[in-house]
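Priority: medium. Attachment 1 of 2:
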Protein backbone atom coordinates (compact mmCIF):
# COMPACT_ATOMS: atom_id res chain seq x y z
CA UNK A 1 0.00 0.00 0.00
CA UNK A 2 2.83 2.36 0.84
CA UNK A 3 4.37 1.92 -2.63
CA UNK A 4 1.16 3.26 -4.23
CA UNK A 5 1.45 6.50 -2.28
CA UNK A 6 5.22 6.93 -2.73
CA UNK A 7 6.06 8.49 -6.11
CA UNK A 8 7.97 6.30 -8.54
CA UNK A 9 11.10 7.46 -10.28
CA UNK A 10 11.66 7.13 -14.03
CA UNK A 11 13.61 3.90 -13.62
CA UNK A 12 10.69 2.35 -11.74
CA UNK A 13 8.28 3.60 -14.43
CA UNK A 14 10.42 1.89 -17.06
CA UNK A 15 10.55 -1.37 -15.08
CA UNK A 16 6.78 -1.38 -14.64
CA UNK A 17 6.23 -0.82 -18.36
CA UNK A 18 8.77 -3.57 -19.10
CA UNK A 19 6.78 -5.86 -16.81
CA UNK A 20 3.59 -5.05 -18.75
CA UNK A 21 5.44 -5.81 -21.99
CA UNK A 22 6.65 -9.17 -20.64
CA UNK A 23 3.20 -10.23 -19.39
CA UNK A 24 1.50 -9.42 -22.70
CA UNK A 25 4.33 -11.06 -24.66
CA UNK A 26 4.20 -14.29 -22.65
CA UNK A 27 0.43 -14.48 -23.10
CA UNK A 28 0.84 -13.87 -26.85
CA UNK A 29 3.42 -16.65 -27.12
CA UNK A 30 1.17 -19.07 -25.21
CA UNK A 31 -1.78 -18.11 -27.40
CA UNK A 32 0.32 -18.54 -30.54
CA UNK A 33 1.56 -22.00 -29.59
CA UNK A 34 -1.89 -23.19 -28.50
CA UNK A 35 -3.47 -22.35 -31.84
CA UNK A 36 -5.13 -19.20 -30.48
CA UNK A 37 -7.03 -21.17 -27.84
CA UNK A 38 -6.96 -18.20 -25.47
CA UNK A 39 -8.94 -16.12 -27.95
CA UNK A 40 -12.12 -17.64 -26.56
CA UNK A 41 -11.54 -15.56 -23.42
CA UNK A 42 -12.81 -12.40 -25.12
CA UNK A 43 -15.93 -10.40 -24.37
CA UNK A 44 -19.04 -11.80 -26.03
CA UNK A 45 -21.82 -9.19 -25.87
CA UNK A 46 -25.01 -10.04 -23.97
CA UNK A 47 -23.82 -13.59 -23.26
CA UNK A 48 -23.33 -14.12 -19.52
CA UNK A 49 -20.24 -16.40 -19.83
CA UNK A 50 -18.82 -13.69 -22.13
CA UNK A 51 -18.55 -11.34 -19.15
CA UNK A 52 -15.19 -12.93 -18.30
CA UNK A 53 -13.82 -11.18 -21.37
CA UNK A 54 -14.16 -7.81 -19.67
CA UNK A 55 -11.15 -8.75 -17.53
CA UNK A 56 -9.41 -11.39 -19.66
CA UNK A 57 -10.07 -10.20 -23.23
CA UNK A 58 -7.58 -7.31 -23.22
CA UNK A 59 -4.71 -9.74 -22.59
CA UNK A 60 -5.44 -11.83 -25.70
CA UNK A 61 -4.83 -10.93 -29.35
CA UNK A 62 -6.09 -12.53 -32.54
CA UNK A 63 -2.78 -12.54 -34.41
CA UNK A 64 0.85 -11.55 -34.10
CA UNK A 65 0.10 -8.44 -36.17
CA UNK A 66 -2.74 -7.55 -33.76
CA UNK A 67 -0.35 -7.98 -30.82
CA UNK A 68 2.37 -5.80 -32.38
CA UNK A 69 -0.09 -3.07 -33.34
CA UNK A 70 -1.15 -2.85 -29.68
CA UNK A 71 1.96 -3.48 -27.58
CA UNK A 72 3.96 -0.40 -28.60
CA UNK A 73 1.16 2.17 -27.97
CA UNK A 74 0.25 0.32 -24.75
CA UNK A 75 3.80 0.67 -23.44
CA UNK A 76 4.18 4.29 -24.54
CA UNK A 77 0.82 5.37 -23.14
CA UNK A 78 1.42 3.42 -19.90
CA UNK A 79 4.72 5.23 -19.41
CA UNK A 80 3.10 8.60 -20.09
CA UNK A 81 0.16 7.86 -17.81
CA UNK A 82 2.58 6.93 -15.03
CA UNK A 83 3.62 10.61 -15.04
CA UNK A 84 0.35 11.17 -13.15
CA UNK A 85 1.51 8.71 -10.46
CA UNK A 86 1.03 5.00 -9.85
CA UNK A 87 -2.21 5.45 -7.93
CA UNK A 88 -3.78 7.42 -10.79
CA UNK A 89 -2.44 4.88 -13.33
CA UNK A 90 -4.14 2.04 -11.44
CA UNK A 91 -7.39 4.01 -11.00
CA UNK A 92 -7.60 4.99 -14.66
CA UNK A 93 -6.67 1.51 -15.89
CA UNK A 94 -9.29 -0.24 -13.75
CA UNK A 95 -11.92 2.35 -14.72
CA UNK A 96 -11.23 1.98 -18.44
CA UNK A 97 -11.03 -1.82 -18.23
CA UNK A 98 -14.37 -2.16 -16.42
CA UNK A 99 -16.41 0.62 -18.03
CA UNK A 100 -15.32 0.05 -21.62
CA UNK A 101 -15.62 -3.72 -21.18
CA UNK A 102 -19.12 -3.43 -19.74
CA UNK A 103 -20.21 -1.07 -22.52
CA UNK A 104 -18.85 -3.49 -25.14
CA UNK A 105 -20.72 -6.34 -23.43
CA UNK A 106 -23.94 -4.31 -23.38
CA UNK A 107 -23.88 -2.59 -26.77
CA UNK A 108 -21.35 -4.08 -29.19
CA UNK A 109 -22.24 -6.29 -32.15
CA UNK A 110 -22.22 -10.05 -31.60
CA UNK A 111 -18.59 -11.17 -31.89
CA UNK A 112 -15.72 -12.13 -29.62
CA UNK A 113 -13.99 -8.87 -28.72
CA UNK A 114 -10.32 -9.32 -27.78
CA UNK A 115 -7.23 -7.15 -27.51
CA UNK A 116 -5.99 -4.28 -25.42
CA UNK A 117 -6.93 -1.57 -27.92
CA UNK A 118 -9.91 -0.47 -25.81
CA UNK A 119 -7.54 0.35 -22.98
CA UNK A 120 -5.14 2.04 -25.40
CA UNK A 121 -7.96 4.26 -26.65
CA UNK A 122 -8.90 4.95 -23.05
CA UNK A 123 -5.35 6.02 -22.26
CA UNK A 124 -5.36 8.14 -25.43
CA UNK A 125 -8.54 9.95 -24.34
CA UNK A 126 -7.30 10.38 -20.78
CA UNK A 127 -3.86 11.68 -21.72
CA UNK A 128 -5.26 14.23 -24.16
CA UNK A 129 -8.00 15.63 -21.93
CA UNK A 130 -6.36 15.29 -18.50
CA UNK A 131 -3.27 17.17 -19.59
CA UNK A 132 -5.27 20.23 -20.50
CA UNK A 133 -7.59 19.95 -17.49
CA UNK A 134 -4.64 19.73 -15.11
CA UNK A 135 -3.17 23.04 -16.23
CA UNK A 136 0.32 21.66 -15.50
CA UNK A 137 2.91 22.44 -18.15
CA UNK A 138 4.47 18.95 -18.23
CA UNK A 139 1.08 17.25 -18.59
CA UNK A 140 -0.07 19.72 -21.25
CA UNK A 141 3.10 18.94 -23.24
CA UNK A 142 2.31 15.22 -22.95
CA UNK A 143 -1.25 15.90 -24.19
CA UNK A 144 0.04 17.89 -27.17
CA UNK A 145 2.59 15.21 -28.09
CA UNK A 146 -0.01 12.43 -27.81
CA UNK A 147 -2.41 14.42 -30.00
CA UNK A 148 0.33 15.14 -32.55
CA UNK A 149 1.80 11.64 -32.82
CA UNK A 150 -1.33 9.56 -32.19
CA UNK A 151 -4.18 11.89 -33.25
CA UNK A 152 -4.99 9.56 -36.14
CA UNK A 153 -6.28 7.03 -33.62
CA UNK A 154 -9.49 9.04 -33.47
CA UNK A 155 -10.54 7.48 -36.79
CA UNK A 156 -10.41 4.04 -35.14
CA UNK A 157 -13.62 4.77 -33.27
CA UNK A 158 -15.50 4.50 -36.56
CA UNK A 159 -16.59 1.19 -38.10
CA UNK A 160 -13.93 0.16 -40.60
CA UNK A 161 -13.56 -3.61 -40.76
CA UNK A 162 -15.70 -6.53 -39.59
CA UNK A 163 -12.64 -7.89 -37.76
CA UNK A 164 -11.83 -4.72 -35.80
CA UNK A 165 -13.68 -3.99 -32.57
CA UNK A 166 -14.31 -0.33 -33.21
CA UNK A 167 -16.77 -0.57 -30.31
CA UNK A 168 -13.87 -1.28 -27.94
CA UNK A 169 -12.06 1.72 -29.38
CA UNK A 170 -15.09 3.98 -28.99
CA UNK A 171 -16.04 2.87 -25.48
CA UNK A 172 -12.39 2.90 -24.38
CA UNK A 173 -12.00 6.46 -25.63
CA UNK A 174 -15.20 7.57 -23.87
CA UNK A 175 -14.06 5.83 -20.66
CA UNK A 176 -10.72 7.63 -20.83
CA UNK A 177 -12.39 11.00 -21.31
CA UNK A 178 -14.70 10.42 -18.35
CA UNK A 179 -11.75 9.28 -16.21
CA UNK A 180 -9.99 12.54 -17.07
CA UNK A 181 -13.08 14.51 -16.12
CA UNK A 182 -13.27 12.68 -12.75
CA UNK A 183 -9.61 12.65 -11.78
CA UNK A 184 -7.71 15.40 -13.60
CA UNK A 185 -7.32 18.19 -11.09
CA UNK A 186 -6.67 21.72 -12.29
CA UNK A 187 -3.57 23.26 -10.79
CA UNK A 188 -4.02 26.33 -8.62
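Attachment 2 of 2:
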Amino acid sequence: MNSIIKPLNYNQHFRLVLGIFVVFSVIEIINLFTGRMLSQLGTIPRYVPGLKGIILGPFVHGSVQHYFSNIIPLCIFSYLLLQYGLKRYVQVTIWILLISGLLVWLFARPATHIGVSGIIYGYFGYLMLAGFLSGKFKLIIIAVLVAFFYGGLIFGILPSSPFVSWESHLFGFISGLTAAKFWAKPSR
